[in-house]
């Protein structure tokens, strides 16, 4: 598999892009010029959360890209390069947490529905159909609007709309694999249903799920940025790419750099995930390899 992956130029480009983004996220405090402060604030629901704050310097606003501010400054004098760098952490956090949580839910529900069948399958799949019947973007907007603006609420809203597709995909795989001979052999030596499901059936159903996960990392980033763009995602002042594009769109004609560099960051990250997902799909599907 590694040999086949190395032979694919586009897959290697995708892997390099993702490793580059991960490197930036890890070493953001060392790469950035300016740094945010984090303060604890109270919400309307009576809870407390940590919010990001950037120093405001109006005499430095709308400075074009130069040797001091690589990507220029915004309408509050904040360094866009530093905000894009720190935005990498937020975007990867959203992508990984949403896809990981949705995958776990989908694996559990889809595996149980496909393996046991009967009334359990019927109930779980009808619940899944209810979620799939509502356009995922509309449902995400409704949930995010109800919960309020925060990174945590974005993740909760996206997990809620993302798990059904994983449940459906894994159920179809489990239905075909549960009748294989090695599953019958496991039953014949006395293995219980839960051991068979989580030790034999689900691991052998994971290949198409892995492709879907890689592609969905980019899709989640786009939806999260879209929610922030329309004012339902990250709170104001956060270094989140979608929010930065939303703030910069009003200044495109005289400060093109404001929205351009966060947009390029989104393009590079999504492109990397998509190229990597295509490469994994080609490796795991023998028909495509032919």
Architecture overview:
With 290 residues, the protein is mostly helical. The chain has one domain: Orthogonal Bundle (MetI-like fold), CATH 1.10.3720.10. A two-stranded antiparallel ribbon has the order 1-2. The relative contact order is 0.16.
Question: How are the SSEs placed, and which strands pair?
Answer:
Elements: H1 2-7, H2 9-26, H3 28-31, E1 37-42, E2 48-53, H4 80-116, H5 118-132, H6 136-147, H7 151-177, H8 181-188, H9 193-201, H10 206-229, H11 241-248, H12 257-284, H13 286-289
Helix pairs in contact: 2-4, 2-12, 4-5, 4-7, 4-10, 4-12, 5-7, 6-7, 7-10, 8-9, 10-11, 10-12, 11-12
Features:
290 residues, two-stranded antiparallel ribbon, 13 helices, mainly alpha, elongated, MetI-like fold, single chain
Q: How confident overall, as mean pLDDT?
A: 86
The rounded Rg comes to 22 Å
Based on Cα principal axes, name the global outline.
elongated
Q: What is the CATH class? A: Mainly Alpha
| Count of helix runs | 13
What letter string, H or E per element, gives the SSE order?
HHHEEHHHHHHHHHH
Strand content: under 5%
Q: At the third CATH level, what is the topology name?
A: MetI-like fold
Tally of DSSP β-strands = 2
CATH architecture: Orthogonal Bundle
Name the strands of the widest sheet in spatial order. Answer: 1-2
At the fourth CATH level, what is the homologous superfamily? MetI-like
The helix-and-strand class reads mainly alpha
| Count of domain modules | 1
Parts with pLDDT < 50 across at least 5 consecutive residues? none
Give helix % range. Answer: 55-70%
């Amino acid at each position: 598999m590694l040999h086949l992956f190395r032979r694919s130029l586009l897959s290697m480009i995708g892997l390099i892009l993702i490793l580059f983004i991960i490197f930036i996220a890890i070493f953001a405090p060392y790469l950035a010029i300016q740094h945010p402060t984090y303060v604890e604030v109270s919400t309307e629901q009576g809870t407390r959360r940590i919010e990001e704050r950037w120093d405001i310097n109006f005499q430095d606003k709308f400075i074009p890209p130069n040797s001091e501010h690589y990507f220029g400054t915004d309408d509050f004098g904040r360094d866009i390069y530093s905000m894009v760098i720190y935005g990498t952490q937020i975007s990867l956090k959203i992508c990984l947490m949403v896809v990981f949580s949705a995958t776990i839910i989908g694996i559990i529900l889809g595996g149980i529905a496909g393996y046991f069948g009967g009334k359990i399958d019927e109930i779980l799949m009808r619940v899944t159909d209810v979620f799939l019947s509502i356009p995922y973007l509309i449902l995400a907007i409704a949930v995010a609007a109800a919960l309020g603006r925060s990174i945590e609420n974005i993740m909760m809203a996206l997990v809620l709309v993302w798990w059904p597709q994983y449940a459906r995909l894994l159920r179809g795989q489990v239905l075909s694999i549960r009748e294989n001979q090695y599953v019958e052999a496991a039953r014949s030596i006395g293995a219980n249903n839960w051991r068979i499901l989580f030790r034999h059936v689900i691991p052998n159903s994971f290949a198409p799920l892995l492709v879907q996960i890689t592609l969905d990392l980019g899709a989640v980033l786009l939806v999260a940025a879209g929610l922030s763009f329309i004012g339902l995602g990250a709170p104001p002042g956060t270094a989140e790419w979608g929010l930065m594009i939303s703030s910069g769109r009003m200044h495109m004609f005289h400060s093109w750099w404001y929205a351009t560099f966060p947009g390029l960051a989104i393009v590079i990250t999504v492109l990397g995930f998509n190229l990597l997902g295509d490469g994994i799909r080609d490796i795991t599907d023998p028909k495509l390899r032919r």
